[in-house]
Amino acid sequence: MMIYIIYTISITIEIYLMHLKKLYFLVLLLCGAFNSYTQYKISGILADTASMTNMAYTSVSIMSMEDSVLRDFTRADETGKFELNVAQKGNYFIRYAHPMFTSFVADIKVKELHTSVDTVHMLSLQNLLETFVVRDARPITIKGDTIEYTADSFKVRAFANVDELLKRLPGIEVDKNGKITAHGKEVQKMLVDGDEFFSDDPAVLAKMLRASAVDKVQVFDNKSETAKLTGVDDGEQVRTINLTLKESAKQGYFGKVEAGAGLPDFYQGQAMMNVYRKKQKFTAFAIGSNTNKVGLGWSEEERYGSSGRSFSENENGTLSANGGLDAGGGMSSDDGNFSGQGLPRTINGGLHYDNKFGKEGSSYALDYRVNSNGTKGFQNTHTQYVMPDTQYVSDNRYEFDRQSLGNAVAAKTELKLDTMRTVIIKLNSNLNDSRSSSVTAGSNSSINGDLLNESESRTDGSTTNYKGGADLTYSQKMKKAGRSLVLNLNGNYNKNVGEHNFLSNSKFYVTNTELHYNQLKRDSSSNFSGGLTLTYSEPLIKDKLFLTASAGSKYLGDRSRLSTFDKEPDGRESFNDSFSTNMDYSLFTSNVGSFLRYTSKPWNIYGGLRITTTQYRNVNNFTDARFSRDYLNFFPTASIAYNKSRNSRASLWYNGSTQQPSAGQIQVVVRNNDPLNVRIGNPDLTQEFRHNFRASYNSYKMISEQSTYISANVGIVQNAFSESRTISEEGVNTFQTINIDGNWNANAWAHQSFKIRPLKTNLSLGLSGNYSVNNTLLNNIKNRSTNLSGGPNLSLSHYGDSDTGLVVDFNISVNYNANRNTVNTGVKTNLFSMQQRLDLSYQFRSGLSIGAENNWQYRQKMDANDKYNNVFISNVYVQQSLLKDRSLQLRLEGNDLLNNNVGVWRYNVNNTITDTNYSTIKRYFMFVVTWNFTRSKESAAQDADAATDID
Fold first, then answer.
1. Weakest mean pLDDT among 315-319, 441-445, 484-488, 584-588
2. Which of 192, 315, 425, 932 could pair with 635 in a Cys bridge, judged by C-beta atoms 3.0 to 4.6 Å apart?
3. In this model, does residue 24 exceed pLDDT 50?
4. 518/504 Cα distance (integer angstroms)
5. Which H or E element spans position 848?
6. Given a cut of 90, is residue 547 above it in pLDDT?
7. Do 503 and 454 touch, CB atoms closer than 8 A?
């Protein structure tokens, strides 16, 4: 009956539109007597989402958006194709109507003589009436270089966090430590509605936000602030996820409180709260634990840690400080971050507030983080070295006890002075205090077991690190669309102060000698960086061709002070200049560049050149030795993208970049923190130049729900930083960084996912591979090492139609690694490994749920004494949800039931094979109480909706 009524109404409207059409053409005919006009054509095709057939004879009409006046009307032909004509450019509505299908209206902007509409998918009334809820017909959409997921199209449990949602999305992986990988590349930033949140730490956001609050998940390569303000890409890209929230989630609050206690002597607790009020957002969290759930993030190192410095320069003129000088004897600061090694103790908390104000949408945001960490444990390392005529083995045991306390604050203000002018100010400051104590025992022996040497050392001390930074960006848009001017000024300061006691005893059996150290080491180092960049953009052809010109200067300065004192038997301290350094290091660059971007559907083409002069200076204040280098670099960059349709994209990309040698690589100072492995500087080092190539293809078929992601990368390095290793007859390794040619690597990644609708199952197939060539010197003999690795990956997931039923998540990956060396062609290393994960859970209508997480890791044995090659870990839980909205949960869980958990990893590169095992958390049982609270426009019903699967 209802279908008949709809059909009658549809016919009436159609007759009415036919009369309007006659009137419309009559008016056009009269107007044509006085004026001539240009016809703009709109064409497309319609399809039935259920039967996947074309929609013949569907009526299609177009109306002006300004006054809703009908401009043209037609019917689709037998193949579902249609054409419309309008007299002028502008914004229009297109209405699609059929008596047996739902009618709907879509917006369209006409600016070309011929505008093509993507395939229009229509839903039958019969399917509509049989379906309880209708979700977005496109769970995945490709918009330019952005892949967008509709969150409600992927089922998650009630009160699930964003990390569970991400695990459901094709092409996105979340490992057991919370590390997120999207389409083969590590996610380094996560945004909320386009804004930074807790310093854009991906794992923090993934656990802080409720999945039911998310509307869209967008994956893209984030551009620099300058590129976003000018609209012209400068080549600087970071894989980023942006979460857009539902409007209903922006009014109210939600969060959870959790407390757990277990045996033997384990505990964990956390509290999280998100508050939204109009344009304001407030978030707070606190965590305390001694389990592997010690924090929200896996990328805390940059927030609270410190490191030495090396300097890299990209094709866009940016410079960064990283890596570098290890003061020796464990002088590197430790941030206390837990990576799975050892037994952790942590207290972790943070606050976030942001607000938008003003008519133009200005905003500001504030962040505060505190992190108190402690880790205690051990690490055993077994390394096999392939030599020109023999092999030898190195064994090392490292025991550690570390504590750290870190504080970090950050602020960002975006002031939109008017519609044309914007000012962005960013400030950040970190302070970290750490203490550490470690004992190391190592030995080297021949392949036959003959002991060459052995060493024991102990290091105790503390380090304080301070970081601060400021960034100011001013952008001015001109009246002419696309014309803009951007000015950026930035500065960063980093200071590291530490004091450590170092005690070491070494024996060398070949020469029957001994070496003893009892020293005090004081480190005081700092670096400053600052830069000024001016970027101008000019449209050459409206909406198609843009020119960008830029100029800038940057300065990086580093001061490294390491003072070593020998402790005499009488208690006196004498300065030891052999293990001390006093270095000043600076880098100054100036650059100019210009780039062209051409955009016209379906093409997007970008290319340009930046010319950079670099002045490099290094001074040894002990000897007054001076070292300088001047470089003239050309940084080409180019990219081309082809968007065949809204749901597919292919692209090619190239850029060049350099990396300068670090202070630690250049300075001629011997570091004795490991007497069996000595590193020396190389004052003759010069910069390396990298050529980077990338190709990618993304595609999503809406009707069949198939997604395809393919990417390939090639990197070629000129004057590459490589390693020269000299091994003495006593078994002591001496390392030095050198420049060498011939290094390159290539990798490829492919992913294909399907939805098997009758089984309500998602199936994903993946394949990855990597090939690298690395040249080194081994006892002054050139060694060319090739490494081939790769393998397939299979994932299968099954989710029911509601909160009840069986959930299955299965993944298996296989990896093969083959390594060859020219220094000894008789030694060939072939290693096989496999990992499987099977997660099972069943939810009963009573609120009871049971589940098991099973992980199996298999590694091929290197020899008969090889351990930990077949590890199976099983975690189980029983959970009961209480209260009307199931917001209170009681959970009993068992971690590593078989007590098999061991920390292991294997590294096979160049002429070495390294196996490591380390202490980690093993079997424990815990009882956990969790309360999820929420209050919003839709309150708890929002979570129920998030868990309902919709066809």
1. 315-319
2. 315
3. no
4. 7
5. strand 848-859
6. yes
7. no
Distance, in Å, from the CA atom of 529 to the CA atom of 470, rounded to the nearest integer, reads 11
CA distance linking residue 411 with residue 85, whole number of Å: 52
Contacts with 645 (C-beta within 8 Å, 6 or more apart), sequence order: 118, 119
Over residues 571-588, the mean pLDDT reads 89
Residue with tokens 């602020």: 411
Structure tokens at 775: 């040249």
CATH number of 2-130: 2.60.40.10
Indicate the CATH number of 284-946 among 3.40.720, 1.25.40, 2.40.170, 2.40.360: 2.40.170
Q: How far apart are the two ends of the chain, measured CA to CA in Å?
A: 24
3-state class of 943 per DSSP? helix
Contact 797, 754 (CB under 8 A): no
Q: Give percent of the chain above pLDDT 70.
A: 81
Alpha carbon 221 to its chain's center: 9
Strands of the sheet containing 90-98, edge to edge, are: 70-75, 59-64, 90-98, 101-110
Peptide bond into 388 cis (omega under 30): no
Q: Give yes or no for residue 689 having a pLDDT over 50.
A: yes
Residue 118 is classified by DSSP as P
DSSP assignment of 563-599 equals EEEEE-TTS-EEE-GGG-EEEEEEEEEEEEEEEEEEE
Q: Structure tokens of 255?
A: 């969060």
Alpha carbon 629 to its chain's center? 35
Contacts of 396 (CB under 8 A, 6+ apart): 380, 381, 383, 440, 441, 442, 443
Query: DSSP secondary structure string, 706-732?
Result: EEEEEEEEEEEEESEEEEEEEE-TT--
Rounded Cα distance, 391 and 447, in Å: 6
Please give the pLDDT value at position 463: 96
Contacts of 860 (CB under 8 A, 6+ apart): 830, 831, 832, 833, 869
Any long-range contacts for 50-58 (C-beta under 8 Å, 24+ apart)? Answer: 50/123, 50/124, 50/127, 52/703, 54/78, 54/79, 54/80, 54/81, 55/80, 55/98, 55/101, 55/120, 55/122, 56/80, 57/98, 58/82, 58/96, 58/97, 58/98, 58/101, 58/122
When mean pLDDT is compared over 96-100, 316-320, 639-643, 677-681, the highest value belongs to 639-643
CA atoms of 82 and 41, how far apart (whole Å): 10
Could you count the other beta carbons within 10 Å of the beta carbon of residue 154? 23
Question: Torsion over CA of 69, 75, 80 and 83, rounded to 10 degrees?
Answer: -60
Q: How many CA atoms lie within 13 A of 350 on its CB side?
A: 27
Measure the CA–CA gap between 711 and 40, rounded to whole angstroms.
Answer: 38
Q: What are phi and psi of 911, to 5 degrees?
A: -105, 25
What is the C-alpha separation between 638 and 658, in angstroms, rounded? 17
DSSP bridge partners of 108 = 92
Q: Where are the domains of the chain?
A: 2-130, 284-946
Enclosing H/E stretch for 30: helix 2-32
Q: What is the rounded CA–CA span in Å between residue 107 and residue 63?
A: 10
**Residue-level pLDDT at 640:** 94
Q: Alpha-carbon distance 173 to 202, whole Å? A: 13
Q: What is the DSSP string of 237-267?
A: EEEEEEEEEPGGGGSEEEEEEEEEEEETTEE
Triad 35, 37, 43: Cα angle to 5°: 155
Whole-number Å distance between alpha carbons of 215 and 243: 7
Residue environment code for 310-343, b if the CB has 16+ CB neighbours within 10 A, otherwise e = bbbbbbbbbbebebbbbbbbbbbbbbbbbebbbb
Q: Which amino acid is at 910?
A: N
In angstroms, rounded to a whole number, what is the distance separating the alpha carbons of residues 716 and 153? 41
Q: Please give the Cα distance from 678 to 287 (Å, whole number).
A: 41
